[in-house]
Amino acid sequence: MAHQFYFNPYILDNLPAPARGFDVVQDISEPRLRMYITSRGVKTFFVRKRVRGKDKRILIGNYPQIDIEDARGAVPSILDEAMKKPPIRRKKIVFKQFLDLYLANKVRRGEDSQMKLARAIDRHLSGLFDKKICEITSDDIRECVANISGPAIAARMYELLQSIFNYAVDTGYVKTNPVMAVDKVKQNRRVRPLNRAGLCRLVDAIGQVEDLTLRSAFLMLVYGFAPRSKIFSMAWEDLDFNHDMWLSRPLSDKAIVLLQDLPQDGHWVFAGRGGIHLTDPRTAWRRVVAAAGIPNLTMDDVYKFLMRQVVWASDREDFRANLNALLDEVLGDNV
Fold first, then answer.
1. CB half-sphere exposure, 92, CA atoms < 13 A
2. Beta bridge partners of 25
3. In the predicted model, what is the mean pLDDT of residues 31-57?
């Protein structure tokens, strides 16, 4: 249940952010008005309403960009609009045309992520492109999903189709969602095998790698608190040792010491062959994780494990201190 109190600037300005996830608080003056507070300190007004049998949470906007009184005043009109039945679209369009509308209006991703999604759609959903969206049946969806190899990808495409047709229902292009009659794709969720003891063994195993570039890149997976693709494409021009920063990311002390000891003789911090940065040294990584006794560990497992452990702070120096504290606690004297 959400914490209830009278929303005013003093209280909202001083609301503490949760260590992870988000908290929800509710206004006493306008009980239908609520607010998310994320672990990053972002505060967002929203209203919650059951619309046509579905629980919907409608975002109003972020505080303090939206004033409290403006948020309260917006609640009735937002709920009235949500209760309106969508107009029935008489014009029939094909799935590909509607997909373009969905991507433009509902998907908010970075450029790289957007391109990756577009490639996945072209590869796995192209069989539906030329069909009118109002004529696509559950059997069509079932056949499309069944033709996707790999349960993980099939499950993601199933969820994407469900979202697309939910939007089609909301905009009046279809009356019901055909995906709802299709069984969800069963998948065995991968258990990430890393723990704190394993991380120490991993650092020890990385220390035995003879190649300086590989050894340093693998250590930065631990010290850098960033995904593999970001670490390997690190450029010297993006580093600011005066402020202990890498672009907008604070760097841990161990990362700074590691990077300052490397020769700065090119554009890329971790240069690969052919004048490009390091990309995917999977053979060397397999040797490292085998030596550490964690043969199923991927490079991004390291980042995801560490980000679950670290305590988020909105202040840059506080967050950097938390990075250092976590590494000191987990690794101790391991360098």
1. 7
2. 3, 35
3. 84
